[in-house]
């Protein structure tokens, strides 16, 4: 497939035609296609999911589940938002009983946030619903397309590993 794309590019005189940039151009093309497909699929899942938990609250809840207990400042840093924004997010999560706030034993002024049993239940519900949405989309693919996705999963999962 790469050879065909390179030949097409050379025939059109497009970027990388006749240069050593073919691999970089192929990588950039793949990156753009992957970003677009993943982004659109994620958006479709969010739209079709119609969860009662807004995206930032849901993201914060997942972060608390994975890394908690957390202080507000650490949660804000991990979610790349300001402390006042995270304070509002936590207030909403607390109001719905999705998190538990406890005093920080190492700082009398601080509070640690953990996920509540209700928060764990709601996350499981959201995950189950979103998985069902993706499964319905996968069911529309033919066998070879599903096999190609299954074969690509190790590579896609490797993309999730952060640079060290």
Model description:
A three-stranded antiparallel β-sheet has the order 1-3-2. The protein has helices at 2-12, 22-49, 55-67, 72-79, 83-95, 117-139, 143-158; strands at residues 70-71, 99-104, 107-115. Helix 4 packs across helix 5 (83-95). It is globular, with a radius of gyration of 22 Å. It is mainly alpha-helical. It contains seven helices and three strands.
Brief write-up:
With 164 residues, this protein is mainly α. Helix content is 68%, strand content 10%. A hairpin with a 2-residue loop joins β2 and β3 (107-115).
Which properties best describe this structure?
164 residues; 7 helices; globular; disordered N terminus
Largest sheet: 3 strands, antiparallel
- Beta-strand segment tally: 3
Oligomeric nature of the chains: single chain
Structural class: mainly alpha
Percent strand: 5-15%
Cα gyration radius (Å)? 22 Å
Biggest sheet: strands side by side, in what order? 1-3-2
What portion of residues is helical?
A: 55-70%
Q: How many DSSP H or I helices?
A: 7
Taken in chain order, the helices and strands follow as HHHEHHEEHH
Residue-averaged pLDDT, rounded? 87
Straight-line N-to-C gap: 32 Å
